């Protein structure tokens, strides 16, 4: 999965332990943080990883004791969520792996068209409550939309090089800035909606394969979910595209509320 073929259309499925190549199409399952560096361990305690067996599928974000936000293009019949991870291979104590009992894509998401990235958002209900602490804790949802030029953090285990894939063992982070919506629309004519927000860097920092579903965090609040972008990743004129969380607050809150 590669990014453009939008991150959503780029769905990466890479075999972790052996570093085998993946096959897929969406950033969700394929995006990785380019132009970044290893995160300070557990500095992103809301970061989640979606796994099918031992295969890393996508990123995700803990927003409640047993609720994860991720990209709808990451949907699979069965997966587990890992919390408290930094190194995917080495255990250092806080890791938790919890099965997903329900996947709830946004009702307007069109799963039959890989080129349609609208409403690329999904809630996952975990079987059990996460054990919360300093290394595993939910993030607050932003209560207002981002402003152009705002500095934000992206994170994930996606590929650190593009187009050649090179998946890191440890969580990577990078700083990006929010693009004006007009500049975003100019980069991707006819593809950008109010439900999307673009972020990038003059240095080429970007999410990429394997990062899909991961967080865009601004001022300590969740503003976006990694969705899609350019292929290859990391072009300063073609920013990463994120599902714009501020446009979906009602749906998120109502859905969680209806499930008790």
Automatic annotation (TrEMBL):
<dbReference type="InterPro" id="IPR009003">
    <property type="entry name" value="Peptidase_S1_PA"/>
</dbReference>
<keyword id="KW-1015">Disulfide bond</keyword>
<keyword id="KW-0865">Zymogen</keyword>
<dbReference type="GO" id="GO:0007613">
    <property type="term" value="P:memory"/>
</dbReference>
<keyword id="KW-0732">Signal</keyword>
<dbReference type="GO" id="GO:0005576">
    <property type="term" value="C:extracellular region"/>
</dbReference>
<dbReference type="InterPro" id="IPR001254">
    <property type="entry name" value="Trypsin_dom"/>
</dbReference>
<dbReference type="InterPro" id="IPR018114">
    <property type="entry name" value="TRYPSIN_HIS"/>
</dbReference>
<keyword id="KW-0963">Cytoplasm</keyword>
<dbReference type="InterPro" id="IPR033116">
    <property type="entry name" value="TRYPSIN_SER"/>
</dbReference>
<dbReference type="GO" id="GO:0006508">
    <property type="term" value="P:proteolysis"/>
</dbReference>
<dbReference type="InterPro" id="IPR043504">
    <property type="entry name" value="Peptidase_S1_PA_chymotrypsin"/>
</dbReference>
<dbReference type="GO" id="GO:0030141">
    <property type="term" value="C:secretory granule"/>
</dbReference>
<dbReference type="GO" id="GO:0004252">
    <property type="term" value="F:serine-type endopeptidase activity"/>
</dbReference>
<keyword id="KW-0964">Secreted</keyword>
<protein>
    <recommendedName>
        <fullName>Kallikrein-8</fullName>
        <ecNumber>3.4.21.118</ecNumber>
    </recommendedName>
</protein>
<dbReference type="Pfam" id="PF00089">
    <property type="entry name" value="Trypsin"/>
</dbReference>
<dbReference type="InterPro" id="IPR001314">
    <property type="entry name" value="Peptidase_S1A"/>
</dbReference>
<keyword id="KW-0645">Protease</keyword>
<comment type="subunit">
    <text>Interacts with SPINK9.</text>
</comment>
<keyword id="KW-0325">Glycoprotein</keyword>
<keyword id="KW-0720">Serine protease</keyword>
<feature type="domain" description="Peptidase S1">
    <location>
        <begin position="33"/>
        <end position="257"/>
    </location>
</feature>
<dbReference type="GO" id="GO:0048812">
    <property type="term" value="P:neuron projection morphogenesis"/>
</dbReference>
<comment type="function">
    <text>Serine protease which is capable of degrading a number of proteins such as casein, fibrinogen, kininogen, fibronectin and collagen type IV. Also cleaves L1CAM in response to increased neural activity. Induces neurite outgrowth and fasciculation of cultured hippocampal neurons. Plays a role in the formation and maturation of orphan and small synaptic boutons in the Schaffer-collateral pathway, regulates Schaffer-collateral long-term potentiation in the hippocampus and is required for memory acquisition and synaptic plasticity. Involved in skin desquamation and keratinocyte proliferation.</text>
</comment>
<feature type="signal peptide">
    <location>
        <begin position="1"/>
        <end position="28"/>
    </location>
</feature>
<keyword id="KW-0378">Hydrolase</keyword>
């Amino acid at each position: 999965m590669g990014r453009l073929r939008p991150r959503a259309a780029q769905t990466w499925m890479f075999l972790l332990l052996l570093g085998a190549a993946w096959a897929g199409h969406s950033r969700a399952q394929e995006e990785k943080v380019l132009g970044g560096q290893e995160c300070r361990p557990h500095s992103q305690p809301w970061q989640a990883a979606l796994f099918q067996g031992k295969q890393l599928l996508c990123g995700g974000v803990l927003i409640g004791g047993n609720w994860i936000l991720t990209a709808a293009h990451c949907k699979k019949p069965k997966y587990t969520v890992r919390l408290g991870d930094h190194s995917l291979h080495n255990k250092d104590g806080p890791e938790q792996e919890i099965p997903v009992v329900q996947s709830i894509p946004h009702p307007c998401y069109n799963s039959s068209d890989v080129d349609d990235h609208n409403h690329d958002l999904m809630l996952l209900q975990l079987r059990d409550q996460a054990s919360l602490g300093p290394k595993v804790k939910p993030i607050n949802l932003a209560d207002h939309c981002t402003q152009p030029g705002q500095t934000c953090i992206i994170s994930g285990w996606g590929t650190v090089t593009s187009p050649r894939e090179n998946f890191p063992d440890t969580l990577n982070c990078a700083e990006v800035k929010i693009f004006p919506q007009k500049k975003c629309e100019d980069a991707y004519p006819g593809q950008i909606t109010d439900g999307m927000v673009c972020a990038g860097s003059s240095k080429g920092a970007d999410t990429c394969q394997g990062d899909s579903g991961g967080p865009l965090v601004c001022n300590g609040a969740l503003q976006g979910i990694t969705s899609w972008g350019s292929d290859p990743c990391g072009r300063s004129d073609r920013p990463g595209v994120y599902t714009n969380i501020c446009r979906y607050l009602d749906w998120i809150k109502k859905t969680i509320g209806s499930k008790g």
